[in-house]
């Protein structure tokens, strides 16, 4: 049984679900919590996945405690009815940890997809770092995207035989939907000259960046645009009202900065493919953009994806305005620096992660 509830989880679990569906030895059961409702549905429709169970837990103003309580209760009922051999969860959301805990309470085995990521700070990203650590404590099988993730798990005492290095399923999903001649169904995006302009894609939403850090990010973006006539910025605004209000206040009247609504996964990854570089505090984009040859500047003080930093595809620039401006200017003006980041080898795999997970499951249960 696969359990997930947010858009990022759905994107990364979708190719695995499609792989499980093709195998006669496996009977997949899909349970979604809908921790995110609309954004989750976009991905389910794109990959043609119809959940067997939809807990539909999302409520306006929900807290982490609310989500945890409703996921544990809902998943517990599904597990008691279906008695799966294993529950597969993904990554680091509250759905991930709560579903793993519900499985543990029912003495059902847990497989953790995208296991072993660590930032080293339990409050950054919050609550994701603790969610993945606690899920890792419960899991029976750990599907680690990279060797570095495997080493994190070994240091925490996980048996090596329970860790399988697979690559990241996000690359599987990415290759499924990116198209060279993609056309946007959006007037703003269709009107942008991606060939002759240096288009920067900005995404920011993390709790630790709320307040002054996000003000710094927006002010840095404004300065870059005002001093570079060939630069345009696209910011798909997160649905959180605090983020949207601040973005409109700081960037709403600046020319060549486009504040747009959140995009479905398909247009979003095709936008990454067309842009010049990416600024983000998201985790998944640090894996997606390098696969498409796009430099990534991480708007955080640390990352749980050090492989990308080591490979040279990603740079952690923090949230100080001056540093952000300096790094963007370097990528805009120094062709050698830009090419070095754009052409670095992506450490997150070859698009075959889902097949490796399937084969590992078959081997595990055959033993």
TrEMBL record:
What is the protein named?
A: UDP-N-acetylglucosamine 2-epimerase (non-hydrolyzing)
Family the entry assigns = Belongs to the UDP-N-acetylglucosamine 2-epimerase family.
* Keyword line: Isomerase
**Enzyme class, broadest EC rank:** isomerase
Q: Which domain of life is it from?
A: Bacteria
Question: Where in this chain does the record put each UDP-N-acetylglucosamine 2-epimerase domain?
Answer: 18-361
GO molecular function per UniProt: UDP-N-acetylglucosamine 2-epimerase activity
What InterPro entries does the entry give? UDP_GlcNAc_Epimerase_2_dom (IPR003331), WecB-like (IPR029767)
Give the species this sequence originates from.
Anoxybacter fermentans
What Pfam families does the annotation carry?
Answer: Epimerase_2
**For this protein, what is the EC number?**
5.1.3.14
